[in-house]
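Input record, target 12 of the design panel.
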């Protein structure tokens, strides 16, 4: 049983870490300055963010702050979908310009704070920022999906 658990954890770690390279968290570029607009659709970008969120949750569960920080930096530096956000938003599209700063604060800034808290080993702050980030995700999805 312990060997099987180790194998499952190793494979899970690989699957969580493999999909995306982790960018530094000091630039708020969403991938645009370094590479231009992404060739990914909004769905593909969101799937990458989900992978990073899974990495954070897994890191919290196994007390691996390196994984938490990597996942958070991946979210903080996610690429923009090709064409930007507007082509993908039909529901409440008129609210998009007003919501972007709020969503940026709740998601991007929280992800940066999660990475910092993970680096500092501050689990209480990490969980607080994770809660704020997830609330931002849910708010955005409820508004625009």
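The sequence produced for target 12 reads:
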């Amino acid at each position: 049983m312990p060997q099987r658990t180790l194998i499952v954890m190793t494979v899970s770690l690989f699957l969580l870490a493999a999909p995306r390279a982790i960018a530094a968290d000091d630039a708020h570029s969403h991938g645009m300055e370094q590479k231009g607009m992404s060739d990914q659709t909004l769905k593909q970008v969101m799937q990458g963010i989900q992978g990073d969120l899974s990495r954070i949750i897994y890191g919290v569960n196994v007390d691996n702050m390196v994984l938490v920080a990597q996942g958070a930096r991946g979210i903080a530096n996610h690429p923009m979908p090709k064409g930007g956000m507007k082509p993908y938003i039909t529901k409440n599209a008129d609210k998009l310009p007003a919501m972007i700063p709020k969503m940026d604060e709740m998601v991007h800034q929280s992800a940066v704070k999660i990475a910092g808290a993970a680096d500092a080993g501050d689990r209480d702050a990490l969980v607080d920022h994770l809660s704020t980030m997830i609330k931002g995700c849910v708010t955005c999805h409820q508004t625009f999906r």
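DSSP finds six helices and no strands in the chain.
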